Amino acid sequence: MSEKWDKESILSLSGAFQTCRILLTAAELDLFTILSDGPKSVEDIARDKSWDERGLRIVMDALAATGFLQKSAEGSYSADETMLKLMAKNGSQSILPLVLHRNRMWESWSKLTEIVKTGSNPNPLGMASRTSEEVQDFIDAMHVVGSVMANRIVESLDLAPFKRMLDVGGASGTYIMAFLRKAPHMKATLFDFPRVVEMGRNRLTQHGFIDRVEIVAGDYTKDELPSGHDLVLLSAIIHSNSRDVNRMLYGKIFRSLDPGGTVLIRDYVLDESRTNPPDGAIFAVNMLCATSAGDSYTLKEIREDLETSGFVSVNLIRNGANMDQLISAEKPR
Hints:
The structure is a single chain. The protein contains 14 helices and 11 strands. By secondary structure, the protein is α/β, with parallel strands linked by helices. It folds into 2 domains: 7-87, Arc Repressor Mutant, subunit A (Orthogonal Bundle); 116-330, Vaccinia Virus protein VP39 (Rossmann fold, 3-Layer(aba) Sandwich). The strands form 3 sheets. It has a 7-stranded mixed β-sheet with strand order 5-4-3-6-7-11-10, with helices on both faces. It has a two-stranded antiparallel sheet with strand order 1-2. α11 (194-206) links the parallel β4 and β5 (213-217).
C-alpha cells in the first residue's frame, strides 16, 4: 500500500538527509573505530588526525544529540557497546562497509536530477572505475547484506539434484558458502573480475570452503563462462545491465550449462505496474544513478529474455519484498 503523506511528513522527510549525512561523515572519518578504545576529547582527536577542531566538535555534538555518541560533563565523547559493535571497523557485527557504500551512493544520487533531464549518467559506478579501497568496501558491503539473506534463500531450495554450481559475479563467495553449507555433496565455481576473485579466495579459505571451489577470473561481458555445471546462480546481477546485455549473459549461461541444468536469478522482480515491491521501484532509481543502463525488471521481461536465449519453464519460485525473489529456468535436455 502506498505511503500516505501530509505536510508534516513531507517536511520531515525533506530534512531527514541532515541526520543521515552526519552519520555518513562519522563513518567516513571512522569516528567509532577511533572511540573503540575509550572516551576521547575533540582536542585529542583533532590533534591526532590534524582535523579542524571546530568542525569536529560540531559534528560530534550532533552525533551526541542524536544518540549515536555520548558526551560527558567533562566534554569527552564515547560510543556505547551497540554502536561500537555495529559501526567500528573491528566491531563483531560491523555494518561499516555497507554504510560506507551508502556514503558513495550519496554522491551518485546527487546527480539524479541531471540524469533525469539529460538521460545520461556522466559517471556510472562500474567496477573498473572504482579504486581498490572502493572495491573492497563494496564487496564487504555486499557480504554484510548477503550473509543472512543467502541462508534464507538457500533454505527455500531443494539442492539434492545438483552437483556443481557456477556463481556468476560471485564476489567474495557469500552465496557459494551458503549453498555448500546446506549441500555437502556439491562443489562450486566462483566467476568474477580478477581483483574480486582474490577477495573470494581469501574469504573461502578463511571459512574452510576453498577445497570445494574453483576460482575463475573473467568478465562475463567479454568472456565465455566455464562449463560443466548443472546450476548457475545470478545473484543481484541483472539489475546492473540493460536487457540487451542480460540476453547476451543468458546466452552464455545457456551454453555453459549442462543439458537439463537450471539457472537461478535472485533480484527484485517488479509487477507489471513497476511499483511493487516498492523497494524494487526505488532500487531502479539507484540503478539510474549508478549505472548507464541498469533497471529493476518485471517477471514478463525476464521471462521473455530467458526464453529468447533458449530457456524453458521460467517461473517465479520465491516471492518477497527485499531483493529476495527467485526466478528459475531450465535448459532443455
